[in-house]
């Protein structure tokens, strides 16, 4: 057992107040001091149980009415975290003090019981701290993250909560081992050497874990986003794990990409800042057609599309004077790329129908082959001249 805990129990038994109380009760009742010690111990435990019941009533009935007057819910979450550990701690601490009042108890037994109670208190404290941090994270998520006031989302906070929990309980275990009288310094040194060896052997895994933390904190994407990587992968994010990110492609295939690669890649996120997407549609018309009229028709067709935004409104313009055609470009914004992905298809279908009705010609390149006999130079040989031109509808 830890020497500090043992000496504390001895100090309790040597208290002058306790000795005086023991003597007075023994004189009044005629009971032996050993019996009086047991009675005092029982009284201390009973008092601690009563105090625990009072604290429980205060936390469950009175405190909620007081904290309900505040403007935030953090105090409510702290009360929930405190409920349980507070009562158990009072009873365990009372039992620990009661053990110290029994002088006739063998030292080894007293020390062992005291060590067990101290270890119980250590894990109660770890449980409370873990609950408290969880309460703060829950409050933060409800007050800020859900309202969009911060970039951190549930994935980040859950990851952080688990990490802190592991740290807290690791410290609690080491402290408990120390209370049993076991030297933890060599253990910590061994863990350090083992940690270095593991880190060297698992560089790729650790790189992916740190990549996951970077992704969750910086949040270039989140679950549900549609992204495209510089390496060409394209799809919806279905999971962000410690080792990898999973994408579901449009043909319903799952791509697993290491987080270390994701953190290094250039990412095009189609879901941020919203689901709006600008479509670029290119159409060529003949030089004999009215370009201004074609532009008006394109803007009219795009503006009539379901899912196309009115602000900014569709815009068409001449983008190039090509070799065979006047090339027009139409820019149209869709409200939701998941629902309105077919806007370009619908626009071009209407263009194919509307342009001929309005006398606007859509040219396409062909070649004409002219054949003649060169009687002077090579009689009977056919000379081919390939002349590019446009056949207009």
Architecture overview:
The protein is an alpha+beta fold. The chain has 3 domains: 3-197, no CATH class; 221-269, Roll (SH3 type barrels), CATH 2.30.30; 277-365, Alpha-Beta Plaits. It contains 12 helices and 10 strands. It has helices spanning 3-13, 16-29, 33-67, 74-82, 85-101, 107-143, 154-179, 185-201, 203-218, 259-264, 291-303, 343-357; strands at residues 226-229, 234-240, 244-248, 254-258, 267-269, 277-285, 315-321, 326-334, 364-373, 382-391. Strands 4-3-2-1-5 form a 5-stranded antiparallel beta sheet. Strand 7 and strand 8 (326-334) form a beta hairpin. It starts with a helix and ends with a strand. The model is unreliable at 147-152 and 377-393 (pLDDT under 50).
Compile the SSE list and pairings:
Blueprint: H1 3-13, H2 16-29, H3 33-67, H4 74-82, H5 85-101, H6 107-143, H7 154-179, H8 185-201, H9 203-218, E1 226-229, E2 234-240, E3 244-248, E4 254-258, H10 259-264, E5 267-269, E6 277-285, H11 291-303, E7 315-321, E8 326-334, H12 343-357, E9 364-373, E10 382-391
Antiparallel strand pairs: 1-2, 1-5, 2-3, 3-4, 6-8, 7-8, 9-10
Feature tags:
about 400 residues, SH3 type barrels, 3-stranded antiparallel β-sheet, about 55% helix, about 20% strand, mechanosensitive monoatomic ion channel activity, transmembrane helix, cell membrane, transmembrane, MscS_channel_TM-2
Report the sheet with the most strands, covering strand number, pairing sense and barrel closure: 5 strands, antiparallel
Order of strands across the main sheet: 4-3-2-1-5
Outline type? elongated
Number of domains: 3
Main structural class: alpha+beta
Task: Quote the beta fraction.
Answer: 15-25%
Low-confidence parts, pLDDT < 50 over ≥5 residues? 147-152, 377-393
**Strand element count:** 10
The helix tally amounts to 12
Q: Average pLDDT value?
A: 77
Helix fraction by DSSP (H/I, runs of at least 4): 40-55%
Helix and strand pattern: HHHHHHHHHEEEEHEEHEEHEE
Organism: Methanooceanicella nereidis
GO cellular component, one term: plasma membrane
Main location: membrane
Keywords: Cell membrane, Membrane, Transmembrane, Transmembrane helix
């Amino acid at each position: 057992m830890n020497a500090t805990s043992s000496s504390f129990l001895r100090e309790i038994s040597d208290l002058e107040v306790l000795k005086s109380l023991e003597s007075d009760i023994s004189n009044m009742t005629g009971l032996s001091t050993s019996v009086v010690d047991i009675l005092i111990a029982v009284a201390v435990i009973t008092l601690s149980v009563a105090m625990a019941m009072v604290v429980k009533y205060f936390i469950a009935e009175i405190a909620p009415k007081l904290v309900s007057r505040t403007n935030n819910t953090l105090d409510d979450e702290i009360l929930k975290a405190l409920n349980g550990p507070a009562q158990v701690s009072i009873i365990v601490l009372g039992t620990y003090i009661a053990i110290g009042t029994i002088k006739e108890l063998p030292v080894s037994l007293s020390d062992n019981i005291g060590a067990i109670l101290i270890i119980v208190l250590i894990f109660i404290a770890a449980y409370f701290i873990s609950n408290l941090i969880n309460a703060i994270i829950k409050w933060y998520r409800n007050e800020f993250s859900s309202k969009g006031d911060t970039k951190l989302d549930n994935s980040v906070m859950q990851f952080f909560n688990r990490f802190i929990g592991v740290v807290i309980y690791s410290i609690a275990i080491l402290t408990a081992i120390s209370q049993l009288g076991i030297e933890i310094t060599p253990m910590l040194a061994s863990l350090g050497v083992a940690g270095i060896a593991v880190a060297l052997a698992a560089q790729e895994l650790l790189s992916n874990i740190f990549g996951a933390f970077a992704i969750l904190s910086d949040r270039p994407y989140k679950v549900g986003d549609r992204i495209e990587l510089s390496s060409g992968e394209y799809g919806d994010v279905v999971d962000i794990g410690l080792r990898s990110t999973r994408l579901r492609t449009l043909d319903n295939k799952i791509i697993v990409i290491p987080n270390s690669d994701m953190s290094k890649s250039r990412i095009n996120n189609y879901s941020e800042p919203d689901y709006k997407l600008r479509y670029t549609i290119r159409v060529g018309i003949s030089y004999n057609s009215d370009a201004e009229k074609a532009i008006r028709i394109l803007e009219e067709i795009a503006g009539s599309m379901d899912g196309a935004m009115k602000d900014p409104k569709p815009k068409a313009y001449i983008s190039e004077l090509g070799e065979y055609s006047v090339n027009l470009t139409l820019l149209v914004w869709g409200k939701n790329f998941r629902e309105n992905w077919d806007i370009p298809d619908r626009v071009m279908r209407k263009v194919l129908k509307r342009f001929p009705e309005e006398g606007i010609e859509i040219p396409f390149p062909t070649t004409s082959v002219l054949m003649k006999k060169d009687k002077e130079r090579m009689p009977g040989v056919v000379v081919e001249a390939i002349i590019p031109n446009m056949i207009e509808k």
